[in-house]
Design a protein that fits this description.
Layout: H1 4-10, H2 12-24, H3 27-36, E1 41-46, H4 49-65, E2 69-73, H5 74-79, H6 81-84, E3 91-97, H7 103-114, E4 119-124, H8 130-134, E5 137-140, H9 153-170, H10 173-180, H11 182-202, E6 208-213, H12 216-232, E7 236-239, E8 256-261, H13 267-279, E9 283-288, H14 293-298, E10 301-304, H15 319-332
Parallel strand pairs: 1-2, 1-3, 3-4, 4-5, 6-7, 6-8, 8-9, 9-10
Helix pairs in contact: 1-15, 2-9, 2-11, 4-9, 4-12, 9-10, 11-15, 12-15
The chain binds 1-O-phosphono-beta-D-fructopyranose.
Length: about 350
């Protein structure tokens, strides 16, 4: 077994440290470039994990810069471009791809640039990829390049690139300062919670994994769902927190682990939902920054990050935990996370 996946999950704080430095070195042209797109809507796009990244990235960019942004799957731009781009709209498209060779994402970048004449800023882990060669500009998280099939440190590092873009565009120095503390916080959290994540992964009384996240946390919930599915072929689903009541809760039972990636903005709603989920008999794992009295009474398990960071700064700190749950689930089922069933590192059509 190559063990690339576990090494890359545990190496995330180091990759974040390098990524912060790499993007910091692009600051000068980025400031001018981002000023030129004032008033443009940013369309973040990608496939699979990179689509989930686009969802959270768009939410972060909107909040931190007060600019318009959306996260859409590359396949929708390919098939339904008029759904995304209007004739007189002003856009910057941000194609995201670890490999920079995924067919839909590369085709979208070509189409947008050549047919629609829209500016493209590519985010990838490889500066010499097809995507990097097509986009007008590019930001490369080379420290997040991976051997593994499943994306882990590439997801969090490229999301950190978007957080840095947002900090630089807004000039929000406090937000950027918070980002600088992520590598150290990440080391602490991985050291503290790796064994608990292993316990969840190995709990054979569970056969269903549901991830809930609101706003910028929905992309993380979707990615957590995909990780455990890809690595361990488990039954997993992801929803916006409050969407869970509108039907999906029908599958909640004592073999389901419902993991809530808690926000600050939605705290009251999310706490009330925990109460409902508990009454359904499902087990609840709450990932939060501070374990309030309410949460301690309502959740079966709590993982407290205790980072002191804002909800838009601390997002990537949740991911090593849910990635590790998926990793250890795979091992407990006798599967090899480095050779996930039916998957390849890149999808080229
Ligand atoms: C996108 C992707 C991954 C998926 C698998 C195949 O890759 O779909 O999300 O987990 O590795 O490729 P990329 O466009 O980010 O390289």
């Amino acid at each position: 077994m190559s063990k690339a996946t576990i090494k890359e999950i545990l190496a995330q704080p180091e990759a974040w440290k390098e990524t912060l430095k790499d993007i910091g070195r692009e600051r000068e042209w980025l400031i001018k470039y981002l000023r030129e797109i004032n008033g443009h809507e940013l369309i973040f796009t990608g496939c699979g994990t990179s689509y989930h990244l686009a969802l959270s990235g768009a939410s972060i960019y909107s909040k931190i810069t007060n600019g318009k942004a959306r996260g859409v799957p590359a396949s929708d731009i390919l098939i339904f471009p008029d759904m995304i781009f209007t004739k007189n709209g002003k856009y910057l498209t941000v194609p995201i791809s670890r490999s920079g060779t995924t067919t839909e994402t590369v085709r979208v970048a070509q189409f947008i640039k050549e047919k629609l004449g829209i500016e493209t800023l590519g985010i990838s882990c490889y500066g010499d990829s097809k995507l990097s060669g097509i986009c007008n500009r590019k930001l490369i998280a080379s420290a997040a390049a991976e051997e593994s099939v499943v994306m882990t440190k590439s997801f969090t590092s490229m999301l950190l690139v978007i957080q840095m873009i947002s900090a630089i565009k807004s000039g929000d120095k406090d937000y950027e300062k918070q980002l600088q503390s992520l590598p150290e916080e990440g080391e602490r959290i991985i050291d503290k919670y790796q064994s608990i994540a292993k316990e969840f992964g190995e709990d054979d009384k569970l056969n269903k994994f549901i991830y809930l996240g609101q706003g910028p946390f929905y992309g993380l919930a979707s990615e957590s769902m995909l990780k455990i599915k890809e690595m361990s072929c488990s039954n997993s689903e992801a929803y916006h927190c409050l969407e869970f009541r509108h039907g999906p809760k029908s599958i909640a039972n004592n073999k389901a682990l419902v993991t809530m990636l808690s926000s600050d903005s939605g705290e009251d709603y999310e706490d009330a939902l925990l109460k409902d989920i508990k009454e359904l008999g499902a087990r609840t794992l709450v990932l939060c920054d501070k374990a309030t009295e309410e949460k301690l009474n309502l959740a079966d398990y709590i993982i407290e990050l205790d980072s002191g960071l804002s909800e838009y700064a601390r997002l990537i700190l949740y991911m090593p935990i849910t990635q590790l749950i998926g990793y250890y689930r795979a091992l407990s089922k006798g599967l090899d996370p480095d050779s996930p069933k039916n998957l390849t590192q890149v999808v080229e059509l």
